[in-house]
Description:
The chain is mostly beta strands. Helix content is 5%, strand content 46%.
Amino acid sequence: LTSATCTPACANNGTCFTDASGESRCSCPENYIGSDCSESIYCRSDASCLGNTSCKVYQGQDYCDCGDDLTGFFCNMTVSPDTPLPPDEGITNYLIHYWAFNIIPFGRLFVDKIRRNHFTRYGDARIYRSADLGNVAQLNCFGSGALISETLKDSCLVAPYNCAEGLTVSFWLQFISGGIIIRTGKAGFHVYVEDGKFFITYQGVDRSWTIERGCIPMDVFLVTATWSAAGGLSYYENGKLVVSTQISDSSSISGNFDDVITVGYEESSSGKRFSTLIIDDLMIWNRALSSENVQIIHSQGILTSFDRGSCLSDPCESGSWCVQGYPSTQHACIQPTSSDCSFEDGLCSFNVSGAAIMTINNQSAIIENMPYHDHTFGICRVPPAKFLTFRQTADVNESSLNSNIFLSLSPKGHLLRLRFWYFMDGHDGGNLTVSISQSSSIFLRLETSVIWSTASPSVRTWQYQQIEMKAALAFLVAMKATFSGSDLFIAMDDLSLEVCNPYLLPTVTNVNIADNGGVNITWSHVGCSETFPFTTMVYYRNSSSSEWALDATTEDSSHVINSILFPPNAVFQFKVNTRYVVNGEVIISDDSAVFDFTIP
């Protein structure tokens, strides 16, 4: 270990060191994890273990014995179901390893369900409950998290010339930061990120095959790579073939072969390297699976019944954005609108103070906590797409994006819907807030209040937020980012601010006698009907009466009144109102023009 300074300092006798990338990080004692070794993971008594489980000792370390249904360091998680293998002999007969990462026996092992080989967790590697995948293995590079397998004694993994039918590796991944993802020994697959690019390499005895991608997806996705001497190297993303290559380079392995698999960690002559990521369902076959096989693996792997989030198991149609809710079986499909500002062509109708539109340099994306790609397209593109970043300077620790001032034709005010995608990542603190400055009169001063704020920890994906509210006659909206240090990146994309007048009166377009003798009324709406859900309130009265009677509140655009007896030649009057409910507040439009109708 070299001399280094960790901030915050390593607790509980943890040791600070500098890794091969030049980053300072903590090496924690056996019973502690976290970026600063502050999180205890050992039980002190049975009372530390949940679910009436007990505290035991394994190889000198205290752990919670969770039984069959619970898992986690303190038995605080349920066990996710295993992803079932399809009844396809071409898949099942060649599967040689499968780590489901659903349980963590003794608080330290992940066991292979095929051959009972195990990974041992080191540093800040843990079992984690993912909204997308259920139970997964989570590694934190700043806590020196790593998974290292025992020696597998697998002839195919030891030496590629024993893999007569090739080799396949598949796993679910969300890559957060770092470089190394997985290495299946000196020979075999090496999956990693370098200079912002995504690499899949297969190392044979004396040759290697490499696939290079422009960047790596930000969300959870299924990585599958196949290799055979005849077919070369193929890479699949979410079950679909992305690229293949039969081109290889001369490349020999120095020293002896080995068949130890490492995840999120590697050691070279320059030192140790770590990555932050989550991984699930790591499978290895001693055969190059076909495209059809890979597609089946993906289809089986996204079933909701195996704790997959519904954005995976029931994806939105192409062109929509999926928002995973809570619980994980719920999601929403967000349709882009014409009012969305993707920042591709400028600031739209917004103005900035200390913020700027930018594209991504992939290397900077990895190093500087940036998103790997914009939200609008959600993929690596050439040229890269744009988004808005909030900036800080040496003198100013905040920046903002502001709307224009809106003035309503109605003294009662507006309805507004603000929606946007945001990204926050880094080790320094900060906030992203949305405030509204409004006044009930153009002659009064605007009063400002915060309507939304987040200081959530880093989440390496684009997050969605929608705000709906009633606003006064005059208002403007401001989005402000504040920074407590330089190691924080805050960005925004696909921003939409829709403003409408809910008090505009609807129009009764027709009244006529229905076939059943009732009165059929038809109407149309303006105002906020294109933006907000609404219902229509249908009223009637006799022309000699001053009191209106509400006959129905309906979501339809027409209604037949059957509830009264209409005498011939009588004159009745009809009107409708548009009814909105926003944040529990009922807002009703002005009355439509009264429609007089003589009963035939």
